[in-house]
Structure formats: C-alpha cells, structure tokens
C-alpha cells in the first residue's frame, strides 16, 4: 500500500490502514463504555492493560511509527528500512491483538473450565503462586529486601559516580557488559521488593508497609530510571483503583494522575539527559519507548524470510547460562540476532526490540502470533476476573497470586526478559525457603516455653 506524509512529515500513513486504525480506536472506546455501563468499573484490569499495550503503543503510535522525525532516533538508512515493511508490521501486530480478544472471549465463555487453565494457569498458581502467597504473609522479608536493594543501589550509584555518569547510571551499565548483571540484579530485587510491599499494602493495609514503599520510591528516584520509579507508583495507583475504589473513579482524578505521571517522567528524562521538557513529546512519539510498530517493521525489512523455529526461545530458556559460555546463546539470543541483522556489534548494541508479537512471528509465523495472543488474552481476563471477584469477597491475596502466576505468560512476547523471569523465580525460591526457616525457628523456640508452662501447671495441681 502507498504511504503518504502529512503535516510536513509529522505523521506518515496508509489511508486504508489509517481508516482501519480509526475504526479500531472507536471500537475500543465503545467496548470500554459498554463495559463501564454493565459493571460500573470505569477502570478495570482488562481495559487498562489494553489501553497501555494496544491503544497507546499500537493504535495511537501507528501514524508516527514511520514518520520523518524518527530519523533523529534511528538514522536515515534505518528509517528507510522501517518504512519499507510498515504495512506488514501493522497487520502482524493487529493479528496478535485480535487474538488477545479471542483469548479473552474464551475465558468469558469457559471461565476456569478450559485446558489453558488446567495445563498452564493452575500449575503456575500451585508453584510460584504458592510461594508468592507465603512470602507476602511475611513481614520480615520485604524489610530485608529493601535493605539489600538500598545497599546494591548505593554500590551502583558509586560506580556510576566514579565514571562521571551519576545522572544516568543505567546508561553506564548498558555500556559495560561485565557490570551489567549487577544493575540487572539491583533492578530485579527492586521490582520484587516493590511488588511484595504493594501486595502487603492492599492485603493487610499496615502503616509499616506504606513507610517501606515510600522509602523504596525515594531510593529509586536516585537511579534516574523512569520505569523503576514510575512503574511502582503506577502500580500503586491502579491497585488503589481496583481494591479501594472498585474501578469507580472520577475522570478528573484520572487526568490529574496522568499529568502527574507525565511530569515525573519529564523530570527524570531531564535528569538523565539534560534535555528540556520540549523533548518529552519527541521521545514519546519518535523515541524508543513506544516504538513497537516501527521496530518490528525495521526487523522485517532486514529478515531473510527464514523462520527461526524456536531457536531464540531455546536461547531464552538457557538464559541462566552466560552468553560467554554458550556459543548457541551468543548466536540465537533475540537481541544478538537483531543486532547482527542490523549490522551492529553484539558487544556494543543490545539489539532491536521487535515488539509484542515480532519475536514469535520470526520463529513460528502468524500461527505463533495467534497462539501467543490467545494465551495472553486468556491470562488477562483471568486476572481481571480475580480482581472483580476480590471486590466482592475481599480476597485480595488471590489477585496477587494470579499476578505472579501470569508473569510467565507476560515474559513470552519478549524473551530478552527471560533472565529476569529466571532470576525472579530463583529469588522467590530463596525467599520461600528463608520464610520456612523463620517459621521453623519460631516454632522450635515456642516448644520449650510450652513444655515449661505444662510442667509448671502440673506442679501446682
């Protein structure tokens, strides 16, 4: 299809695809409106998740994905490549999201009585979900994690300060592959700590946990990571909507929260790069934060058409093995594959992110996209149902168990995150064993006291 520049190159579209895009935008808001009228939830997990991944990243970003200003981010040659396959990128991504709707419909029809629940959700719930519930109930573990996180964060900031990059520690560690695991470990522990504290806040509502959360946010702001600081705050806000307001929130409150989040992102962006607020819009529409459609198109133009048949997924499952010790991982990790395709050095460039459905398409074609979309849709509706049930029963713990159990499915679209999944699983396992040891020690210490009380009672009688 022919694509045309409009408004002096600010947007570049195919009139046919733009028409489809507009129809889908209208359909999204119609779906949201009828859901709101039926349930009373202005914000629910299903529509909020789709708003972030489908409406914002895909539908809203499409007109900007191959526009001329992208040249400032990826260069003239690469922009020409991205423009070449933009239509294919649109259709692949659209197929994936339509499959998400199919998966959501499957859950609405069959609920928990479906093989996806029996063979995927239930095993995850009974393994990592069970560990999560045990850890959330512990008051000591979040405190220990926060202490470890602050210690690691201090070490990270000291290294960045010595290198003269205190304003952008993340950039420093991305440039130093040998030190990158330290930064990844810090982020993983921080993510787990914030998740556990948030869960405890909305399960037990204790002031101590709220203080811990405030300490975590204050510490995380120093690292200059927009996701690290904004993500937990966004998580707190959405959980507050789900568990305290039951989806019923005024639009003005939502607007104020959105402006606040954007202001924080702008502040952190300025801290990291020194650019003014005017650069934030360019970063949103033409940068690398929401560039799924553009980057998938770029990769498709470099691809020779031969499917990988699971090679990058196998490399991801082997992510606990360092790349330096595995020639297979060096060759087939998705970041290294896309970096090689683009002509970049795998030691200097992290690779091109091919979007939510790009990697599964490169491996298994459109069938893989459909299957992944169905699994994601089922999982999203599963969690949405748990949240709305908790609003009636008050069993908020079940929701956070579902969040953790669904984390595996959430890692499937971008296998570069499998290292984080493995690391989180290992950390959860260690914390679970640590919690069991604490319980055993407590029970052991109570037994002599109980025996002494029994003997004393016998002497009196």
UniProtKB/TrEMBL annotation:
Signal peptide: none annotated. This is Oligosaccharide repeat unit polymerase. The chain crosses the membrane at residues 6-33, 45-68, 88-110, 142-161, 182-205, 211-237, 249-271, 360-378, 390-412, 418-438. It holds the Pfam family O-ag_pol_Wzy. It comes from Mucilaginibacter robiniae. The keyword Transmembrane helix applies. The lineage of its organism: Bacteria, Pseudomonadati, Bacteroidota, Sphingobacteriia, Sphingobacteriales. NCBIfam families: glyco_rpt_poly. InterPro entries: O-ag_pol_Wzy.
């Amino acid at each position: 299809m022919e694509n045309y520049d409009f408004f002096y190159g600010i947007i570049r579209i195919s009139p046919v695809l733009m028409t489809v895009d507009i129809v889908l935008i209208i359909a999204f808001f119609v779906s949201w409106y009828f859901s709101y009228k039926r349930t009373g939830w202005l914000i629910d997990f299903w529509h909020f998740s789709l708003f972030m991944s489908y409406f914002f990243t895909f539908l809203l970003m499409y007109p900007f994905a191959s526009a001329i200003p992208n040249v400032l981010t990826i260069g003239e040659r690469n922009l020409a490549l991205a423009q070449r396959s933009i239509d294919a990128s649109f259709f692949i991504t659209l197929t994936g999201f339509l499959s998400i709707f199919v998966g959501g419909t499957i859950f609405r029809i069959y609920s928990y009585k479906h093989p996806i629940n029996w063979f995927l959700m239930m095993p995850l719930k009974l393994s990592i979900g069970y560990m999560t519930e045990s850890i959330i109930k512990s008051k000591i573990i979040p405190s220990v994690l926060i202490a470890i996180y602050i210690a690691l964060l201090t070490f990270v900031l000291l290294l960045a300060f010595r290198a003269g990059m205190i304003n952008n520690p993340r950039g420093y560690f991305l440039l130093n592959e040998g030190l990158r695991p330290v930064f990844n470990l810090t982020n993983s522990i921080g993510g787990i700590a914030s998740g556990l504290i948030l869960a405890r806040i909305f399960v037990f509502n204790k002031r101590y946990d709220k203080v811990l959360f405030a300490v975590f946010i204050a510490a995380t702001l120093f690292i200059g990571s927009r996701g690290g600081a904004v993500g937990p705050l966004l998580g707190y806000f959405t959980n507050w909507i789900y568990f305290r307001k039951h989806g019923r929130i005024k639009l003005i409150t939502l607007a104020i929260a959105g402006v606040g989040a954007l202001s924080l992102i702008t502040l952190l962006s300025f801290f990291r790069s020194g650019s003014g607020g005017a650069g934030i819009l360019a970063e949103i529409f033409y940068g690398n934060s929401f560039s799924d459609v553009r980057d998938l198109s770029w990769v498709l133009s470099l691809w020779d058409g031969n499917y990988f048949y699971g090679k990058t997924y196998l490399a991801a499952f082997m992510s606990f093995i360092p790349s330096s010790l595995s020639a297979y991982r060096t060759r087939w990790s998705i970041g290294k594959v896309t970096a090689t395709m683009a002509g970049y050095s795998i030691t200097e460039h992290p690779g091109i992110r091919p979007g939510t459905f790009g990697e599964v398409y490169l491996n298994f074609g459109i069938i893989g996209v459909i299957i992944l979309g169905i699994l994601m849709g089922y999982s999203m509706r599963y969690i949405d149902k748990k949240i709305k049930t908790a609003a009636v029963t008050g069993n908020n713990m079940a929701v956070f168990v579902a969040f953790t159990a669904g984390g595996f499915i959430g890692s499937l679209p971008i296998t570069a995150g499998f290292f984080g999944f493995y690391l989180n699983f290992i950390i959860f396992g260690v914390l679970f064993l640590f919690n069991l040891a604490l319980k055993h020690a407590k029970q052991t210490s109570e037994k002599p006291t109980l025996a002494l009380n029994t003997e004393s009672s016998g002497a009196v009688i």
